[in-house]
Amino acid sequence: MQNHCNHCEHCTDNWGEGPPHARPGPPTFSGLRTTVMKTVLLSLHFYRNTRISARHRTHPALRGNVRATDLSADAATIELPKPTHRAAMSNGSCLLPDVDGRTVWARRLRDVIEAHIADLGGPAAISEAERSIVRRASTLTVELERLEAKFANAGEASPGELDAYQRTANSLRRLLESVGLQRRQRNVTPDLRTYHASKAAAKAGGR
């Protein structure tokens, strides 16, 4: 039985892939170039991601939250993660978490902490351990003041309250002795670079 095509007269008995006009033509040069370029780009992208993953696993400084910011053909640039945001208590914007800092007790605690830190030479001159001791000592100071106000209003102190007051005062003394009872002078000596810069500015201004 013969297969006939209604569109042309080139049909024969057995067209394996259809008539000549229905067969796919040979690939053009532009099509081959597009296919090759896509293959190269995909290979390059896979290679860059593999290098980034390897560096992320092996480099100790890149084991955290690392992002690849540039996957261009030149190089993959690794951006180190920014320091995480500090807690509100750490940066000084909050005295205590979930506590209203406008109360009399909280404002007095803040004032005592700032006064002790100033006696020790300022925030830049004390260690974190000294800062922690100052905070505990300031809390005891505020509590002792509260007990003193209670004694004054009542006109007396019970034996239990007086014992608690004495124990708290002794603990406060030990804390203050650990950081020093004398004021520290703040170091205002400029470093060598600042000194030379100020001298050069003064000499330029005197001309």
Describe this protein's structure.
The chain starts with 28 loop residues before the first helix and ends with a helix. Helix 2 packs across helix 3 and helix 3 packs antiparallel against helix 4. It has a two-stranded antiparallel sheet with strand order 1-2. It has helices at 29-58, 104-119, 128-154, 159-179, 192-206; strands at 67-71, 76-79. Residues 9-17 and 60-78 have low confidence and may be disordered. 53% of the residues lie in helices and 4% in strands. The chain contains 5 helices and 2 strands.
Across the major sheet, the strand order is 1-2
Helix content: 40-55%
How would a textbook summarize the main sheet?
A: 2 strands, antiparallel
* Distance, first to last CA: 112 Å
Shape field: elongated
Q: Are there runs of 5+ residues with pLDDT below 50, and where?
A: 9-17, 60-78
Order of helices and strands: HEEHHHH
Number of distinct beta strands: 2
The number of distinct helices, counting runs of at least 4 residues, comes to 5
Q: Please, what is the average pLDDT? A: 75
Q: Report the portion of residues in β strands.
A: under 5%
The class by helix and strand makeup works out as: mainly alpha
Report the radius of gyration as a whole number of Å: 39 Å
Layout of secondary structure:
Elements: H1 29-58, E1 67-71, E2 76-79, H2 104-119, H3 128-154, H4 159-179, H5 192-206
Antiparallel strand pairs: 1-2
Concise synopsis of the structure shown:
The chain is mainly alpha-helical and 207 residues long.
